[in-house]
Design brief:
With 184 residues, this protein is mainly β. The chain has one helix at 16-26, and strands spanning 2-4, 32-36, 39-42, 45-47, 59-63, 70-74, 84-86, 90-95, 98-101, 104-105, 110-111, 115-117, 121-127, 130-132, 147-160, 163-165, 171-178, 181-183. The model has no long low-confidence stretch (mean pLDDT 88).
């Protein structure tokens, strides 16, 4: 198990982005679990294909403590509207975290997507998280969907036991091939 901490030097990574970079550089040879210490992490994360990752070799990001959850928060904009984005990413688990956005408004729209899923993503699991979007009543559009997957081809997406609040839509999902998709 790997550890990520916000302030003290006792963990293996100082921030989540460093863990993501290590995954992209090294790949994995077995299940990997990142226990994230309680605290707030101002980060914008993009996940893509990781060498060695498979349905039997997954990557999990979870709070180290169930009672004091780690918070991942990002400040979006017109060109980077997400907290966490998956593009050709498979076999990831996010558990017992707070995933949120500061949101951003301009004269054209409000930006506040938390999770964005793009094409060719498989076996993504979100369990027991608080996923908090951004709401601006003057701009209710898909730019501030909490979970957004538009025109995708993916499989094995599981959203289980999460509390999803705010945003224009809690979950906005369209695509030509989405099998199976399950909300519990």
């Amino acid at each position: 198990m790997e550890h990520i901490q916000s302030e003290s030097p006792t963990g293996d990574f100082y921030d989540i982005q460093k863990a993501v970079e290590a995954l992209q550089t090294r790949g994995i040879s077995d299940d990997v679990v990142f226990n994230i210490k309680p605290g707030q992490y101002l980060e914008q994360l993009t996940f893509s294909s990781i060498e060695g990752c498979s349905p039997t070799k997954t990557i999990t990001f979870q709070s180290e403590s169930i009672t004091q959850k780690a918070t991942i928060i990002a400040q979006p904009g017109p060109t980077n509207n997400f907290t966490i984005k998956f593009s050709q990413a498979s076999n990831f688990v996010f558990r017992n975290l707070i995933l949120t956005t500061t949101g951003f408004s301009d004269f054209e729209s409000t930006y506040g997507k938390v999770i964005v899923i793009e094409n060719d993503c498989h076996n993504l699991k979100f369990s027991n998280n608080q996923i908090i979007g951004f709401s601006d009543p003057s701009h209710l559009s898909n730019d501030n969907d909490v979970i957004h997957a538009n025109n995708i081809q993916c499989s094995g997406i599981l959203i289980d036991g999460n509390q999803i609040t705010n945003g224009a839509y809690a979950i906005y999902l369209t695509g030509s091939s989405v099998h199976p998709f399950k909300i519990v």
